Amino acid sequence: MNQIANKKIKDIESLAKTVATLKKKGKKVVQCHGVFDLIHLGHIRHFNLAKKEGDILIVTLTKDKHVKRGPGRPIFNELLRAETLASLEITDYVAVVESPTAIEAIKTLRPDVYVKGSDYKEKAKDVTGMIYDEEEAVKSVGGRLAFTDDITFSSSHLINNYLESYPPGTIKYLKAIGKRYSIDDVLSSLRKPKSMKALVLGDAIIDQYHYCSPMGKSAKESLVVTRFVEDEMFAGGAFATANNVASICDQVDFITVLGEQETLQSFIQGKLSANVQPTFFYRSETCTTIKRRYVDNWSKKKLFEICFMKDNLISKSIETKILKHLKNVISEYDLVIVSDFGHGLMTPGIIDFVCRSAKYLAINVQTNSANRGFNLVTKYPRADCVCIDYRELCLAAHDKYSDYKTLIKKVNSLISTEYIIATRGHLGSVCYSEKDGFHDTPAFADKVVDLIGAGDAFFAFVAPCFAAGIPQELVSFIGNAVGSLAVQIICNREPVSAVDLSKFITRLLK
User: CA torsion 95→97→103→105, rounded to 10°?
Assistant: First the structure.
């Protein structure tokens, strides 16, 4: 890094002192903020026009971990982005912002003018809604919001078209779907399920990650010893489904069964989204299901897993209570979403009732170490939407050799459903309906942080989208965008947010 650029780059606190000194000398301070992943002519013109609003131009940029534009972004890390900005003659100071938005930086730096590009003039079109908060922040420190008005370029468009961020087949797919649906078309479709009232019904699972550091082989036993570093606990299973549904539907009710011995109910309630209203039932002589994974702290690869669970069917008395509750409320819901992990909640009686009574039924039936080959989607006689992964597809079809389209048709002949959407890992997904046939969608993630929870997020978004009548190919596109964001999140640390999804979709289609 050259010395001039190095002198320009400061942390927010020290920069705030510099700004205070400059303002005492009568200097007018201007601040711009963004990701600035790929500096182009539009940015240069923006900075030149912004500088005309005052004497000193400060450019703040978003830290890498807070860039929510999907896998592979930012292209350049925060140090390189800061150095690039500081190398421009027009900039006076540059700082990387620690918080996810510009709000704290505005309040700390107290600029006289905060400048945004012309594409933010129509504030209602800002998918994040942050422009209103930024305006409020700058006004609170005695400054004002201004907009530049000049030719604009899109970093995402340039990256997508000239830096080959995706394989040729994926780029071809994105261009094709972008011709059929505009960004506004997709974002307006995402708003359709918001008014739907959804019920999530499924198995309660607590995921625990115990991060470890390897020490070596034991001197006296044939085993590898690891040192405990830290642990983390997540609301997984149907909890994760409910939280992700809550990102796309404003009203979500949730029914599950906890263990009486160790309910973890306080932890669970603290992890549920504000618009998720739970109803808990309790089974005796067991704890709430816990899946404890031991994870290498450096690579984040899972070493082994221990389950604390009782996975036989719930008792008749609990089933009766749940059925009584369902009979009283199921007619209220536009959509019933079942996350069946095969841990005892979904009895034949409850399955029969929801299949007969739900206005719209979406199901995801998962196989795992406790029930491989036993918990099959075919135990449901009907559904409006079935979400399944490739391995579960093979098990349900009793066929591990046929191609995936043959497998889907076999399963479709065994269960009455309008849509089957199957996830295929790095190969993306495929959706089938008798009306529209097959639609293949590529994956949009070039790296995976953690697969746990990605399928739940995918299902939680595609189910309301199908129920809202969104076209099959568009639902598939949305689902894969969600999945690509979900695999960047450790376990179920947080749901995929509608804002992050909107940003990613905007990036993909530019």
Answer: -40
Residue 318 Cα distances to 257, 258, 346, 393, 492, angstroms? 9, 11, 11, 31, 28
Whether 326 is in a domain gets the answer yes
Is the CB of residue 116 less than 8 Å from the CB of residue 150?
no
CA distance 87 to 274: 45
User: Would you call 500 helix, strand, or coil by DSSP?
Assistant: helix
- B/e letters for 451-463, b = 16+ CB within 10 Å, e = fewer, are ebbbbbbbbbbbb
393: number of CA atoms within 13 Å, CB side? 25
Distance CA 394, CA 401 (A): 8
Helix, strand, coil in percent for the chain, rounding step 5: 40, 25, 35
Contact between residue 8 and residue 86 where contact means Cβ atoms under 8 Å apart:
yes
Residue 171 lies in a domain: no
pLDDT number for residue 204: 96
Task: Tally the residues of the chain.
Answer: 510
Alpha helices in 333-401 (DSSP H): 348-357, 390-397
Distance between CA atoms of 174 and 195, rounded to whole angstroms? 29
Q: How far apart are CA 157 and CA 52, in angstroms?
A: 28
Give the pLDDT confidence of 371-384 residue by residue, as tens digits: 888 999 999 999 99
Q: How many domains does the chain have?
A: 2
Spatial separation of the C-alpha atoms in residues 81 and 75, rounded to whole Å: 9
- State the DSSP string of 426-470: GG-EEEEETTTEEEEE----SS-S--TTHHHHHHHHHHHHHHTT-
pLDDT mean over 130-134: 87
Give CA–CA dist 227/207, Å, rounded: 20
Q: Are residues 353 and 490 in the same domain?
A: yes
**pLDDT (tens digit, 9 = 90+) per residue, 407-442?**
999 999 999 999 999 999 889 999 999 999 999 999
Instruction: Tell me if 442 sits within 8 A of 473, measured CB to CB.
Output: no
- Please indicate, yes or no, whether residues 147 and 194 belong to a single structural domain of this protein: no
- For residue 155, give the nearest of 56, 84, 54, 79 by alpha carbon: 84
